Write the structure tokens for this entry.
Amino acid sequence: MLMLGFAGFLGLLKIVLMALAAFGLVDAALRREDAFRAADKQNKVFWLIILSIALVVSYLFSLLSILPIAGLVGSIVYIVDVRPALRQVSGGSGWGRRRGSSSDGPYGPYNGGR
């Protein structure tokens, strides 16, 4: 009975690891390539490969091995370090963001004192 509960817990933990890797992978795929360079992070292809490997490894291997833990570390690094830097460089999340002209300020268009 105890092993059944432990297996259920490991199953839920495996789903969480896969969700983190999938979220990071989708987010990295939607970001622009130049944002990675502007944020002084590794390039987009690097993060797509790391997060893809993390997703596949978390699906294929048991959580008691080292590979899913390494994939978790890669996913956490992307979500905690790279994603906020990309959001800061690109000016927001990119989902439903209002696109204005380059002369727009934080409270509307800048009219130059007119």
Summary: Strands lie at 104-105, 108-109. The longest helix spans residues 2-30.
